[in-house]
Design goal:
heterodimer, A: mainly alpha, globular, B: mainly alpha, 9 helices
C-alpha cells in the first residue's frame, strides 16, 4: 500500500537514492521535451510554441488521474500524500512574481538545471538570479513575514474548498485541457513562425 | 553517426509523450516517497547552507534561514538537493545523447547575448523571490501541487501563467 517509504515498505535509507534516480528521470524528460531551451519555453507566452502547455497539462492530468485511480483501487492512500499547504495571498503574489520571472528568464528552477547541464549560459545566468532572489527574500524576511504566513487555509485540496468530488474535478480538468490543446494548435498555425 | 546526431539536434519528444512520461515520473515519486518532485527548494537549501557557513550568527538570527537550519546536519541534506543533482545528470544525459551539448547563450537574434544574460539574470531574481512566497515553483507547487489537487498549487499555477501573460507583451522584444 503506497506511499511505500512512509509506510515502511521500502527502508528510509533508500529515500535519497530514489531522489537522485527520480531527478535523473525528471531531468532527462524535461531536456528531451525541449525544456533546456528558453526560446522554446517562452513560446507559450507568444503563441509560437505551446510545448509548455501541452507537457504541463498532460503531466498534471496523468499524475492526478494516476494518483486517484491508485487511491480508488487502494494501491495508494491519498491522505498520506504531501499536499502543498495553501496560503492564499502568498501563493498569488509568489505566482505572479514567478510569472514575471518566467517570461523574462524563459526558465523555471527545474529547467534551469537542465539548461545549465547542457551548456546554456542563459540558463546558468538564470540560476544565479534565482540564488539572488532567494537571498533577497531571506534578508528582507522580517518585513515580508506577515504576508508569507498570513491567509493560511491549511493543507486543503480543491475538493475541500470547492466541494466538488475529486473525480468530477479531474474529469472537468481533462475536458478543459483537451479544449486548450485544440486551441493551442489553432493559435500556433496563425502566429508568425519562430526558428530557434 | 555524426550526421545522424546533427540532424537530431532539434528533434524533441512529442509534448504529449513528454507530458505522459513526466506524469508517470510524478506519479511514481508520490507512490514511492509520499511527496512530489520539486526544484526551487534545492536552490533555497544551497543559499541557506552558504549563508550559514559564511555568517552563522546572522543566519541564526534571521527567521527565514533559521527555519531550515538543523542542528548537527547540513541544510543541504534534503531530498530535493539530491533530486536536483539527478536533474543535472538527467538533463546532461539527454542533451549528450541528442547532440545538444554546447556552451552558448541562447537568444533571439533581435537582442544581443549580453542583453539576454542580463534579462535572464533578472528573470531568475524574480523567480527565486516568487518561489519563496509560493513555497515552490512550477515543479514543486505546480506539478506536484496539482497532482494531489492542492488548492495552493492550483492558485500558484494560475498566478504564474497570469503574471507571465500579463507582462509578455511588454518584454516581447526579447523573444520575438
Amino acid at each position: 500500500m503506497g506511499p511505500l517509504i512512509p509506510n515502511g515498505v521500502i527502508p528510509t535509507e533508500w529515500n535519497f537514492v530514489i531522489a537522485i534516480l527520480i531527478g535523473i528521470a525528471f531531468g532527462f524528460t524535461l531536456e528531451a521535451s525541449g525544456f533546456s531551451s528558453s526560446r522554446k519555453i517562452a513560446g507559450v507566452f507568444y503563441g509560437y510554441d505551446f510545448a509548455v502547455l501541452k507537457v504541463f497539462f498532460t503531466a498534471a492530468l496523468v499524475s492526478m488521474i494516476g494518483i486517484y485511480y491508485m487511491d480508488y483501487f487502494e494501491l495508494v492512500n491519498v491522505e498520506q500524500l504531501f499536499v502543498l499547504p495553501t496560503y492564499t495571498w502568498s501563493a498569488i503574489i509568489g505566482g505572479v512574481i514567478m510569472g514575471f520571472g518566467f517570461v523574462l528568464g524563459g526558465f523555471c528552477p527545474g529547467t534551469t538545471l537542465c539548461a545549465a547541464a547542457i551548456g546554456k549560459i542563459d540558463g546558468m545566468a538564470t540560476m544565479v538570479g534565482i540564488f539572488i532572489g532567494i537571498f533577497l527574500f531571506s534578508e528582507f524576511y522580517d518585513f515580508i513575514e506577515p504576508l508569507f504566513d498570513g491567509s493560511y487555509l491549511g493543507r486543503i485540496t480543491i475538493t475541500d474548498s470547492l466541494g466538488i468530488s475529486p473525480y468530477w474535478f479531474i474529469f472537468l480538468f481533462t475536458v478543459f485541457a483537451v479544449i486548450a490543446f485544440y486551441f493551442a494548435d489553432v493559435i500556433r498555425k496563425r502566429v508568425k513562425k519562430v526558428f530557434y | 553517426m555524426k550526421i545522424h546526431i546533427e540532424e537530431n539536434k532539434h528533434v524533441y519528444w512529442n509534448p504529449y509523450f513528454g507530458g505522459l512520461i513526466l506524469g508517470l515520473v510524478i506519479l511514481f515519486t508520490f507512490y514511492i516517497t509520499g511527496r512530489g518532485p520539486g526544484a526551487s527548494g534545492a536552490f533555497k537549501s544551497t543559499i541557506v547552507t552558504v549563508v550559514n557557513d559564511v555568517a552563522p550568527t546572522h543566519a541564526e538570527n534571521n527567521a527565514y534561514y533559521d527555519r531550515f537550519i538543523k542542528k548537527g546536519d547540513s541544510p543541504m541534506n534534503t531530498w530535493l538537493v539530491y533530486e536536483a543533482l539527478g536533474l543535472l545528470i538527467g538533463g546532461f544525459l539527454s542533451g549528450a545523447l541528442s547532440g545538444r551539448l554546447k556552451l552558448f547563450v541562447e537568444h533571439s537574434p533581435k537582442i544581443t547575448s549580453k542583453k539576454r544574460i542580463i534579462v535572464a539574470l533578472l528573470g531568475g531574481v524574480f523567480f527565486g523571490l516568487g518561489a519563496q512566497f509560493a513555497r515552490g515553483c512550477t515543479s514543486g507547487a505546480g506539478l506536484s501541487g496539482l497532482a494531489v489537487l492542492s488548492l495552493g498549487g492550483f492558485i500558484t499555477v494560475l498566478s504564474i501563467f497570469g503574471g507571465g501573460y500579463a507582462i509578455a507583451y511588454f518584454v516581447r522584444k526579447n523573444w520575438i
